[in-house]
Amino acid sequence: MTAPTAILQVICPDRPALVSELSGWVAANGGNIRHADHHTDAGAGLFLSRIEWQLEGFGLPREAIAPAVSALAERLGGEGQVHFSDATPRVAIFVSKQHHCLVDLLWRTRSGELPMAVPLVISNHPDLEPVARDFGATYVHLPVSATTKAEVEQEQLRLLAEHNIELVVLAKYMQVLSPGFLERYCGSGSHQVINIHHSFLPAFKGAQPYHRAWERGVKLIGATAHYVTEELDGGPIIEQATVHVSHRDEVDDLIRKGRDCERLALARALRLHLRRQVMVYRGRTAVFD
Amino acid sequence: MTAPTAILQVICPDRPALVSELSGWVAANGGNIRHADHHTDAGAGLFLSRIEWQLEGFGLPREAIAPAVSALAERLGGEGQVHFSDATPRVAIFVSKQHHCLVDLLWRTRSGELPMAVPLVISNHPDLEPVARDFGATYVHLPVSATTKAEVEQEQLRLLAEHNIELVVLAKYMQVLSPGFLERYCGSGSHQVINIHHSFLPAFKGAQPYHRAWERGVKLIGATAHYVTEELDGGPIIEQATVHVSHRDEVDDLIRKGRDCERLALARALRLHLRRQVMVYRGRTAVFD
Amino acid sequence: MTAPTAILQVICPDRPALVSELSGWVAANGGNIRHADHHTDAGAGLFLSRIEWQLEGFGLPREAIAPAVSALAERLGGEGQVHFSDATPRVAIFVSKQHHCLVDLLWRTRSGELPMAVPLVISNHPDLEPVARDFGATYVHLPVSATTKAEVEQEQLRLLAEHNIELVVLAKYMQVLSPGFLERYCGSGSHQVINIHHSFLPAFKGAQPYHRAWERGVKLIGATAHYVTEELDGGPIIEQATVHVSHRDEVDDLIRKGRDCERLALARALRLHLRRQVMVYRGRTAVFD
Amino acid sequence: MTAPTAILQVICPDRPALVSELSGWVAANGGNIRHADHHTDAGAGLFLSRIEWQLEGFGLPREAIAPAVSALAERLGGEGQVHFSDATPRVAIFVSKQHHCLVDLLWRTRSGELPMAVPLVISNHPDLEPVARDFGATYVHLPVSATTKAEVEQEQLRLLAEHNIELVVLAKYMQVLSPGFLERYCGSGSHQVINIHHSFLPAFKGAQPYHRAWERGVKLIGATAHYVTEELDGGPIIEQATVHVSHRDEVDDLIRKGRDCERLALARALRLHLRRQVMVYRGRTAVFD
Q1: Model confidence, pTM
Q2: Smaller CB count within 10 Å for chain D: N or C?
Q3: Is residue B253 flagged as an active site residue?
Q4: Which residue in the list C233, C252, C253, C260 is annotated as catalytic?
Q5: Which domain, by its residues, includes A224?
C-alpha cells in the first residue's frame, strides 16, 4: 500500500555540513526524502542521522545502496547502515507462562501494526503453545534449570539460526540470558534482543518488582522496554510507561495494571525498532518519532 | 550562555531535493546545523522545514540572512522567514481577574524558561496590577463593555504599537477580540495572538466550559493553547493537556484542577512559539519539538 | 480464591445517619464490610452508597438479601439492589470488522481480569467468527441494512433472550441501535448496554471522529466508554482516555493510536461495571474505585 | 463559604462492625456525614477510617470531640485523631535557592487552594527573601555548613516553636535534616515534615537525580512528595508524577521539565495532607481522595 522506502542511519563525529552532505547524497541520486531526523550529542561530540526516502526513481539499485552508505559513513569517520521499509524482519518471541505480551504482539503483527514475521516462539513452559500455533508460529518448549541452562541456550541459538531470526523479543521470558548467549547472538555492539521489564527502571531492577513496589508504597508503577546487554536490566532504554496505583491496590492489582503498561511499552518499542526509528549509542537511544 | 543561532522556517510545494537544497545553502555559507526538522503533508502537497544553525562563523552578516532566505524560499515557490535565538520578543499579556496564568508566565520569564520580555499587561479589571508591577511591566486597566469595546480595542492597538509588541498572549482574558482587532493586529495570515481555552477543544467551545463539562459528567477535563483567529476557539491548536476528574469533583474542583492544565498548556505552547518550533499552515500547526 | 461478597447499591434522598443506617444493617446481620463508599450530590440532594461485605458468616441466606435491601432502601425513600461477587454475568459482544476490542475483552475474560462469560458474539460482518469460536462463543452474523434493521434487531433481541444475556457490549459495532431496541432490552432506567466511542466525548460525536480530529488538528485524541441511551453518544460516561498525537500522524496513525485508547477505556469501564463499582443517576456516573 | 466539618482518622485492628460503630457514633451525636472512607489492609490486619461530618448541629462541643474520638479509638484497640476543616495550620517552608516550589505554594495559599498559613520561610541562602516578604512571611537566612549544622538546627527548632509551626515543607531545601532534628520536631511516629524529591523514587535516591537520569537514558522523569523519616528518601510516599523526556533533552531540560512535576506533586500532596486525606501506617500512606 505504502510505497517502499530506504532508511539510512549514520553515526559519526560532529562537524559542519553533515546534514547537507547526507541529504545531498540522497538528492544527487534522485531520492525524494520523506523523513530526515538528526541529533547532535554535544557532550559526546557525535552526530546521528536517520534519513528515509522513496525508493521509486532512486538512481541506485537496492543492492548498491548499503555499500554506498557504508562508504559515505566511512568518509565521515563513522558508521552507517541501511534498511528497507518493505523488508519483513523475522522475529522470535521468548515467553514463559504469561500470555498478555505474546498475544498482543501477534495480533498487532497480524493487523499490520508491527511490520515483522514471527516464525518461532520459544518458552520454558508448554502453556502458550496453542497461541503460537494459531498464528502459524513454531512453538518450542525448552525447560530451563540451572544445570541445563548452557545446553538449552545452545539449542536456542541453533533454532534462531535455523529460522533465520534477526531479532529476539523477550515478552515476559522471566529468565536471564547468559553473556555467552548474548555475545554469540548479538555479536559486537549490535542490538538484537529487546526485553520488557515490569518496572520503571532503574527502580526495582531484578526479580519481583511489583512485590517490591507494593512494599515501598509507590503511587505509580511502570514498565520499561530496553535492549538487552550483559548488565541485568541495564541496557539502552527505548520506551517507558507508568500508571497510577493507590493504597487499595494489592500486589495482584499492581500486576494486573502493570500488564497494560508492559504490553503498550513493548509494542511501542518494537514498532519503533522495526521502523528503524531507534539508534543506539553509548548505552542510550535516540528515538526519532 | 548558549551560542546564538539562526532559525529558518520555509513552507513550499513538495518536490525532491528540498532538504538538500536548504541544508546545502546553510553549509555553503559555513553554518553548523544544530537542529533540522521537516514535514511533508502529502495530502496538501506541502513541504515544511525548520533549520537552526549556529551564527558563529556563518558567512553572511545577520542583516543579510533574512533577504537570502526569502530569495531562497521564493525560488522554491514558497515562503520563508528567519529568527534569531538571542532576540527577545516583546510580549503583551491580556488578563481579566485570574492570576494563575499571568503569575506563571512572569515567573517562567524571569527564570529564563520563556525567552521573552513582558513590558505590558492589559486587563479589563484592576486586580492584577500589583503582580505586573512586581515584574516591571506597565499595567493598563481598560474596562470593557458592549458599548465601549470598539473604543477600547483602539486604545489596546495604540498601546501595542507604543510598546512595540510582537505577540499578544490571552492569559484567561475572558473577552472575545473583534475581527477588526485581529485584522489590524495580526495582518494577513500571520499568527501573533495566543489564547488559552479552558477545555479540550473542540469540546466545550465558548463560555463556561467547566460548568458544561460537569453537566455532561466527563471523566477528563482539559485545556487548549491555540492561535486566535476570527473563528471563536477555532484557531490552530499548539498544545493540549488533560487531567482526570471524578464524580467527587464539583464545578469548583474542575476549575481548580483545570488551572494546572491551563498554565502548563499555555507555558508549553508559548515556549514552543518563542523558540520558533511552531509552523502554521491550513488551520493547523506542525510542532517541531 | 477470593471469598465471595455481597454488594449493595442504594440511591436515596440525602439526610443524616444514612451511612450509619446502612452499615448498621450489615453489622446487625454479622457482615464484615470490605469496602464502603458513599457520595452525596449536594445539588441534587441525593445520597449514593455502595457497600461490599463478606458473605461468609452473614446472618441472612443469599435469597433473603435482595428483598431485605429493597425494603431497607424503600424505608429510606430510595432504590436499592444487590449483586454477588461470585456471579458470572452473561455478556454479549456486538462487533463489526475490527478485532482489537473483541480480542482484548475475550483474553481479559479468559485470564480472569473480567468476571464475566461471553456466550454470544453478534456481528454485521462475518470476519471475526474464528475469534469468537476460539473462545467458545456462538457467533451470529446478521447483516444490517436500512430496510432490514428493524427485523435484525428483533432477531438480536431473540438471541439475547435465548442466551440469557444480562449486558451488551458494543465493541466497535459501528451501528446505531434504535430506541425501540434499547427500550425493549434495557427497560426503564436500567443500563445494560455499554459502548466504546472513538473520541473524547463530547468532542466528535457521531461518525468518523478520527477524520474530524485530524481535520481540526488536535494534539490529543481519546476514547469514551459510556452507557448507551437513546441520545446518540450522549449516555452516562464511565471512563475516558487520551493519547498525544502530532502533526506527523496521518488519519491512519490516529486510528492506530486510538485503538489502544479504545480497548483500555472499554476494558476499564467493563471491569468497573462488572464489579458493581458504577452507579448511574441523572445522566452521569459515580465510579467507586 | 463552606460549612466547617470535623474529620476523624482512626486506625485499629480489623474486625466486623467497625464502619457501623464509627458512623453510628457520628449519627448518635446528630452528625451529617459528608465523606466516609475506609481501608482494610488484610495482610497487616489493620482497619483505617476517615470520616468527615458537618459541625453544624453536632451534639458535642468542639473541645469534647477529640477526647471522645480518642476514647472511641481506644475501645477499638487503636488510635484516633480529629481535625477541623476551618483550622488553618501554620506551615514553615524550607528552601535553598530555587523559587518554583515556594512561589507555587504561596500563590496557591493566597488563592485558597491550600488551607494553611505560611508565617515562616527558612533558607540557607538569601535569594528568596523578597518572595517571602511579598507574602507577609518572615524570612530567616541560616547558612549551613558541616561544622555549623547542629547549631543551625537548634535555631531552626527554636524558630519553629516561636512561630508555632505545625508542619514543615521542604520545598527544594537541598539539605538533609539530622535524625536529632526529626526526633525533636516530629516526636514519635507523627509525620510533620513533607519533602519533594526530584526523582521517581525509589529510582535515583540522593543527590543529583536529574544528572543520573540523563546518564541512564531514561524516557520518563518524575518527582515524589513524601513524609520525611530518618531514612534518606525512604519515607512514606504521598504523591508521584512523571513526564516524558527524549534524547533531545539535555540535563538542563530534565531539570526544567522536572520543575513542573515537582511543584504539581508537592502541591497535590500538601493539599491532601492539609485536608487530612492522608493516613500513614507501616511506612506507607492511604490517600482518601
Answers
A1: 0.96
A2: N
A3: no
A4: C233
A5: 90-287
